[in-house]
Amino acid sequence: MSNQIDLFEPEPAEVERLAEVAFNAHSASSLHVPHLVRWHDITEPPRDRWRAALRAVLAAQATRPPDGRAQ
């Protein structure tokens, strides 16, 4: 088994883990009281948006041109 993420079809568990990390980092950086809202505190609709955003980032990374610059 590889330790790399399939950027086109990431495993659901990996998407969940990365979405949780991203949300918790966002929450900690944007609130006056760090870690006030954590991944386990939010419901499915917001979680779905974070998962979709994460999938979009992974897809953009997968289709990045060889020179590495975003289009």
What would you note in describing this structure?
There is one protein chain. With 71 residues, the protein is mainly alpha-helical. The chain contains two helices and no strands. The protein has helices at 12-30, 44-62. The longest helix has 19 residues, at 12-30.
Question: How would you describe this structure in keywords?
Answer:
71 residues; mainly alpha
- Globally, the shape reads globular
Report the total helices: 2
Strand count, sense and barrel status of the largest sheet are: none
Structural class from helices and strands? mainly alpha
**What is the total tally of β strands?**
0
**Strand residue percentage:** under 5%
Multimerization status: single chain
Mean pLDDT: 84
